[in-house]
Structures are given as C-alpha cells and as structure tokens.
Amino acid sequence: MLVLFETPAGFALFKVLDEGKLNKVEDLSKEFLAADSARKVVSLKAFSKFENTAEALEAATKLLESTPSKGLRKFLRAHCDGETLGVADSKLGNAIKEKLKIDCIHNTSVMELLRGVRTQLTELISGLGAQDLAPMSLGLSHSLSRYKLKFSADKVDTMIVQAIGLLDDLDKELNTYAMRIREWYGWHFPELTRIVQDNIHYAKTVKLMGDRANAAKLDFSEILPEEVETELKEAAVISMGTEVNDLDLMNIKELCDQVLSLSEYRAQLYDYLKSRMNTVAPNLTALVGELVGARLIAHGGSLLNLAKQPGSTVQILGAEKALFRALKTKHSTPKYGLIYHASLVGQAAPKHKGKISRSLAAKAALAIRCDALGDDQDNSMGLENRAKLEARLRALEGKELGRSAGSAKGKPKIEVYDKDRKKGAGLITPAKLQSCSRFSSRANNKLGCS
C-alpha cells in the first residue's frame, strides 16, 4: 500500500511497511513520536519535485478542486502500478480511480497515518529541511491567495455592492446640497423655488442668473421650457427677496458647481452599474431592473448567497423589521420588501401587488440561480419570465374588469328543490311560493274563513 502526501516542494509517495499497524488507529500516533520508529512504519518510495512556483500553484489549485494535475497523473502512472493508494481527499481518490484506474482508500487510518507523516516529514524526506519548507509554504500560500482573489467570482459582486452603496450616498448628498441651495438662494429669489421644481435645473438656473436683476437679459432656453422662462422673468421683476452681495453669490455658485459635478458623476456611476449588472446578473436585471437587482445582491451579500435563498425570502428581503414586528405582535406579515420598487409591482393595482410580488419573487429566485450557477450569460430566461408575469398581470386586471362589468346584473334566482313535487310540476321558486300564499289569503277573506 502506498500513501500520497502533498508538500509545498512536491508530491511524495510513501510505502507502508507494516499494514497491520493501520488496524490500531489509537496506537498509530505513538509510532511517529520519533524518527526511527516512523521509518519502521513508512518509507519514501518516490518524490516529484516542483520545478517552479507556477507548477506548484497549478498543482495546489487542482487539489483544491479535487482533481489531479498533469504532473501528478504522470507521477502516479510511473510508481503506482498495481498498488493501492491512500489519499487525504475522497473526491480526489474518486478522480484518480476514474482517470488512472488506481484503487484509492480514504479512511480514518489513512488520515491518522498522514498526520504522523506530517510530524516527521523532514526526517522521512532526505534533503528537505525545515528551513527550506517554511519559505516554500509561505510563498505558495501567497501565490494561491493571489490566484483565488484574481479569479474569484465574488469579486464582481463586491463591485456591484460598492457601486449601489455609493449611488445611494450620492443621492442623499445631492438632495442635501440641493435643499441647501434652495434655502440659501431663496432669501434672494424665493419665487424661483415654486417655478423650477427640478434640483439640477434649479442649480443651473442659479449659476447662470446670479443676481435676479440679470434674469431679464439672459437666455434660459437651454435649461428651461419657454413658458417657465417667461414666468421666471416676470417673477424676477416683482420678487419680494432681499438683496445679496457678490461674495454671497460666489459661494452659492460654487455650491451649484458641486451639485452639477456630483450629478454628472452619478450618471457615470449609474451607467457603470448598469453594464456590470447586465454582465453579472442579466436575467435578474431583465426581471426587476438594475437598481432593484443591485440592492438585492447588496442585501444578500453576494450573488451566490442570494442564490441560496428561496423565493419567499427574496420577496420580503429588506422588510425584516416589519416581518419580525408582525410576528411579535401577531399581525399580518409584509408582502414585499425591496422587490416593491420593481416596475412590474409598480404597474399592478394595489389589490394585486401581493400576488404579483409573490410571482415575481419566485421567478427572480430562479433567475438569480441561473445567473450565479449557470453557464449561459444571456438574459433569455429573464425576458421569458417577464413576459409571463406581464401576461399574468393582464389576466388579473382582465378578470377584475370582467367582475366589475357583470356586477350590474341582477342576482340569479335561487330555486328551491321540492322533493315531494309531482312529475312534471317543475321547481318551486320563492316568487311562486309568495304569489300562492297571497292568493290563498285573499280567497279565505272573501269566503269569510278565519
């Protein structure tokens, strides 16, 4: 029996000299307390040294994936003919058995034997000292860390999480700065706040106009519509605002420059986020849009973590406080969280938002798994599911319209079945019963019957 041992310097094959000692797992560790006793249990049969760091890195990454590298396959073919091989990874053993037709063993005895070999590694392998093994281990670990970071699938998710977080921060800053401009310039021209509603247009107008006395001789056609421009010039003449000096206007214009530059950067960041989402999660983007999809990924931590969640969790993701408060107070649980801002939910009537959000969450969970674990990078699945959801929304609205259209009709007559009726007498309706009772009462009155 042979045992495969991986080291930072290369692969080693050890021959088990006394296989009977493997049956006593508890006493196996005592055999490796000293180098002399360890040599009586195993002996080095062959050693394949790595030529450079690149070969060591390739072998290490293959071992992490539980697959033998090209050098390991060549090494085992040369020295494992007709032998049984003990390995530390059962999946690696299955791969070796499938590709090389070598019987592999993975059990407690083999793991304890490998543990003992590790303690006496420098004594069992001649020419490999502890002072050489330590720098090799450190260099290989650094190379492996760089490789995993370079080819990590979560790395792109991190970019999306940071981008959507920065986008939300920019929105808050823009709103804060825009309100500060309105309050600051409102002392000079308070009527402008009512005339120009958009914050970016307001900042551009203030930067161009400066003092309100300049409004009459300026052209605002590139910023404002014609009717708004006319109203602005008329209001500037009769404004009730106070006068400001040039130093105040200079600081206000600098704040306007800040708002406009942040607005331009936000537009660039949104384009970047849109391209990233279409690349990383095209199906999720097709279903819920770039912003909602990015917020779902950020809330889940990564696309892979989000793929592990069921549709019911995706539906209420972002409404955890409301969910736990409802469970604590025994009220109705929320029907939607972040997914409420998706366009499909927004198109639905209030009474249908719960149904559409549930259906959308189920389709979104499938789209997330397809994006995270699938091989295809197109959005065909997301577009197909979106078409199905739009058809369901139309069906719900059509059913509601059909009910409201038929509600004006009279209620159907409820016919009472008479089990004692004669053949051919038909059913007795409440109207017939009422008319018969009236006729019998009139007849009794005429005849003087009580």
UniProtKB/TrEMBL annotation:
Which Pfam families does the record associate with it?
Nop (PF01798), NOP5NT (PF08156)
Predominant subcellular localization, coarse grouping:
nucleus
Lineage top rank: taxon: Eukaryota
Question: What is its subcellular localisation?
Answer: Nucleus, Nucleolus
Q: Which SUPFAM superfamilies match?
A: Nop domain (SSF89124)
One example of the protein's molecular function in GO is: snoRNA binding
GO biological process annotation, one example: ribosome biogenesis
Keyword Nucleus part of the UniProt annotation: yes
**Gene Ontology cellular component annotations, sorted alphabetically:** box C/D methylation guide snoRNP complex; small-subunit processome
Please give the InterPro entries that the UniProt record associates with this protein: Nop56/Nop58, NOP58/56_N, Nop_C, Nop_dom, Nop_dom_sf, NOSIC
- Family stated for the protein in its record: Belongs to the NOP5/NOP56 family.
What PANTHER family has UniProt attached to this entry? NUCLEOLAR PROTEIN 5 NUCLEOLAR PROTEIN NOP5 NOP58, NUCLEOLAR PROTEIN 58
Tell me, in a sentence or two, what this protein's role is: Required for 60S ribosomal subunit biogenesis.
**Protein name, please?**
Nop domain-containing protein
Species whose genome carries this gene: Gossypium raimondii (Peruvian cotton)
